Amino acid sequence: MSSRLRRALVDAGGALVFPLIAIVLSFVLGAFIVLATGNNPLTAYAALVRGAVGSPTAIGRTLLGATPLIFTGLAVAVAFRAGLFNIGGEGQLYIGAITAAWLGVTLGFLGALSIPIVLLACVVTGFLWGAIPGILKARFGAHEVITTIMLNYIGIYLTTYLALKPLRTEGLVPGTDAIDFAARIPFIGLGLGRANYGFLLALVAAVVAYLLLWRTGRGFQIRAVGLSPGAANYAGMGIGANTVLALAIGGAFAAIGGGVEVLGVYGKMTVPFVTGLGFNGIGVALLGRNHPAGVVLGALLFGGLASGAQEMQFSTDVPLQLTSVLLAVILLLVTATKLVELLFGKRARALAGARLEKGLG
Amino acid sequence: MTEERTRGGTAGVEAPVVLEMRGVTKAFGPVKANDGVSITLGRGEILGLLGENGAGKSTLMKILYGLYSPDEGEVFVDGERAEIRDPKDAVSRGIGMVHQHFTLIPALTVAENIVLGAEPRKGATLDLAKAIKDTEELSERYGLRVDPRTRVADLSVGAQQRVEILKALYRKARILVLDEPTAVLTPQETEDLFSVLKELVADGLSIILITHKLGELLGISNRITIIRDGKVVETVEASGTDEGALARLMVGREVLLRVEKTEAKVGGPRLSAEGLVVLSGAGAKAVDGIGLEVRGGEILGIAGVDGNGQTELAEALAGTRPAESGLVRLDGEDVTRVGANGRQGRGLAYVPEDRGAKGLVQDFSLSENNALKTYDEAPFSKWGWIFPKAMRRRAAEALRAYDVRPPDPDARAGSLSGGNQQKAVLARELSGDPGVIIAAQPTRGVDVGAIEFIHRQLLEQRARGKAILLISLELEEVRSLSDRVAVIYDGRIVGEVGPDATDEELGLLMAGRTGGEKDA
Fold it and tell me: Which tens digits make up the pLDDT trace of B256-284?
């Protein structure tokens, strides 16, 4: 029992080592960039940290930024466990957003009662939308990377059309009608600013993803298919069915993310809508090693950097874009296991890199 | 450095030493695959390198060929210290390698394959005429019959192997390493190969022959170096030893080479096929109208050279590959349209030939692998939820019962040796008390100790009245375990014989009774 606990801890430690090294290294590299812009790295980083976690408002901003990324990160991670690259998080999130924007208004008269119904509807539309590349792959062998990328465009422009034409409101800002405040996801309060209960929903989603993958027969199948299609087929599991399901479930997660953004943050689907959440989900999942817990941590890092960057830009001359550079370097280091081997020797890579490499292979 | 030529063994080398590997050590993580290994090879000598799977033979040869770099140790070619960093270095030193899995390009002709990477040129273009001429010359000189203009895809396995050897000779190899060359050959083809090898050494080449088959080394090699657990146990003269002694050296204890079989108590038919046609992945008819019947209490052996439809036959019977036409019956019930899952539920166990890619999910724990087929059944599952604790408990029992080492349900399947992986597969397949067992190459790549264990398990199941279909490339295995032996050739059963059939009889059947082979 204790040996198992120890193994679990070592595993978790091993999984964290690389992202942590990557983060530290990227900050060291970032310091030079800050220096090059004529600023003091220490003041800049102090502002960055202050802006991320320095006050309840800052924390609230971090949580707010992390929330959709947890959902889109899970969308990537769940599919990845079945050996599939879901690049379609962006479009899936838009599908969820338009679903919420439309139903949120339509069912607004129900007040808070409409929230679970609307989110459930997001699950359904996201599931169906996500299933499309799954079916294309299972039935016709179309590679999911291509189809999910293409479906992003279809999803984005389809929802934009819906928001601009049939669901268009009379207001100045183009987009759908505003959802009644009673039918929106409430703020957490506690001085956390605009952070809403959507963050807690995201945590619940991460737990659900974990249980699904490691505590259900379906998850067992999905993981078996992802790790060894040959063995899964041998054991009588349907490769096709699991491919469709894993992508569909991923789509559902991303779509709730879109729904939560609409119900918790914007109250409507504006045009243009918030962009990049789906794509950043790929980075979050990569950083989190496609594990739900890792996805949550990764999303918090993304959210924190975005939130801190505003403070940094405010109190120093360092531009917002520095955090994009930092994130890029972090992701580069997390994925470039060979580079880490050069820096820290083979042992370090063997410790934590092998699994990731295999996963990406 | 003083003369210490024969440190690796007890037997001396009379001919000039062309190759010496001295104190080679190579570790993978905590495991030392090679631990101070020294071998010597004399000119015109065939050195047998004998060891169980995982003993370190292949690692040593990969070091020699520059595919791995050793942690310690040195290599001397013709008495000169050789830094071999990659295969190119090895080739320039006159070392040639014939891998177990061929490295030929099927779409190219024999001549093109042979000169590939070292092409004779005429200006900027390939001088194909010269390539063909060179190939013909080489092929004639050593009796390696093969037509340079044939596409490799159209060659038999034996002929492809000859192309591999020619490839090495074309690159002026004087030291030839062959990794398990007989695994894919019929007995006759093996004899052909050995006479070619004798010809090569008569011409002054030196050969290292890697194998885990005891018998064949005695006939052909001059000396045999036995490796166990990464260390050289001993080097013996082939003339002064026998199979029993070699097996003992290889395993480190007394081994039962013969299995003891009780009288068969044959019951009714349990697994049968009629007019079964199965397509290969490429769409060709891999199984072309096979009928067979396995009865309770007997082992039906399927002998044949690799690639004659064995894989597809096993998969179609087990339900993991659809049958194009024909019938599969399980205990009298037509299960042709029943999937693998349904057939498992009806008491069919299947030990697949490829445990690495099919039998086990390498990155699953042993407990997950043990539940790979039953994860959705009680006590592992209820209402769609699974219970890892129950899986772990059951796996711990099964692993102990089948002597899987380590018997740790949390260990990753991929971290086990081949023999232990296979025992883990067996533990899963047999612990469900199946009525019918399909065992496809159950001892492929498994050490002698594990082979003994697996054979005992299969015979025990036979004694308990189970119907067993044994598909194997190892003639000895088929013969010693089976009650009846059917020979498969080109997707058809070409004959059935008793287990006491001679090598010649079986060999002819395995070659499709034509006596020759598809030489172009």
Answer: 666 777 887 888 999 999 999 999 887 88
Residues with Cβ within 8 Å of residue B273, at least 6 apart in sequence: B290, B291, B292, B293, B316, B317, B326, B327, B328, B329
Q: B106 near B100, Cβ under 8 Å?
A: no
CA neighbor of A278 nearest in space, from A257, A306, A304: A257
Instruction: Please indicate whether, in this complex, the C-beta atoms of A7 and B381 are within 8 angstroms of each other.
Output: no
Rounded to a whole number of angstroms, the distance from the CA of A236 to the nearest CA of chain B is: 5
Q: How far is CA A265 from CA A64, A67, A187, B245, B485, in A?
A: 8, 11, 9, 79, 73
Nearest CA in chain B to A7: B410
For residue B124, the tally of other CB atoms under 10 A from its CB is: 5
Range of lowest pLDDT (A261-265, B115-119, B407-411, B481-485): B115-119
Q: Is residue B104 pLDDT above 80, yes or no?
A: yes
Nearest C-alpha of chain B: how many angstroms from A16?
19
Q: For residue A50, what are its two tokens?
A: 């202050």
Query: B343 near B321, Cβ under 8 Å?
Result: no
Distance CA B345, CA B331 (A): 12
Chain B residues lying within 8 Å of A239, measured CB to CB: none
CB nearest B339 (choices: A7, A224, A236): A236
Contacts of B320 in chain A (CB under 8 A): 233-234, 236
In the prediction, which pLDDT does B420 show? 87
Q: Assess if residue A304 is contained within a domain.
A: yes
CATH (domain of A46):
1.10.3470
pTM of the model: 0.79
| Unique residue bearing structure tokens 């009796």 | B143
Task: End-to-end CA distance of chain A: give it in Å, rounded.
Answer: 33
Residues in CB range of B306: below 8 A, 6 or more apart: B157, B183, B184, B473
What is the domain count for chain A?
A: 1
Give the strands of the sheet with B484-489, arranged side by side: B348-351, B436-440, B467-471, B299-303, B484-489, B492-497
Helix (H) or strand (E) holding B369: helix B366-370
Q: Which A-chain residues 322-361 have CB contacts (< 8 A) with chain B?
A: 350, 355, 358
Indicate yes or no: CB of A217 within 8 angstroms of CB of B388.
no
Residue A155 lies in a domain: yes
Structural domain boundaries, residue A113 = 40-316
Does A28 lie at the interface with B, CB-CB under 8 angstroms? no
- From chain B residues 348-377, the ones with a CB under 8 A of any chain A CB are 350, 352, 354, 357-364, 368, 371-373, 375-376
Which value does ipTM take for this structure?
A: 0.83
Separation CA A222–CA B112 (nearest Å)? 44
> Of all helices (H) and strands (E), which one includes residue B191?
helix B187-202
Asked if the peptide bond before residue A272 counts as cis, ω within 30 degrees of 0, the response is yes
Strands B223-228, B46-51: pairing kind: parallel
**Best CA proximity match to B115, nearest among B182, B39, B171:** B171
Alpha carbon distances (Å) from B499 to A88, B6, B160, B255, B476? 59, 44, 30, 22, 10
Is A141's Cβ below 8 Å from some Cβ in B?
A: no
Whether A75 maps to a domain, the answer reads yes
Helix (H) or strand (E) holding B293: strand B285-295
Residue A4 is nearest to which of B340, B375, B410, comparing CB atoms? B410
- What is the average per-residue pLDDT within B43-62? 86
Q: What H or E segment, with its residue span, contains residue A21?
A: helix A2-36
- Distance (Å) from the alpha carbon of A5 to chain B's nearest alpha carbon: 12
Of B318, B360, B410, which is closest to A231 when you measure between CB atoms? B360
A37 interface with B at CB cutoff 8 Å: no
Residue A71 in domain: yes
Above pLDDT 70, what percent of chain B? Answer: 94
Residue with more model confidence, B245 or A223: A223
Q: pLDDT above 90 covers what percent of chain B?
A: 49
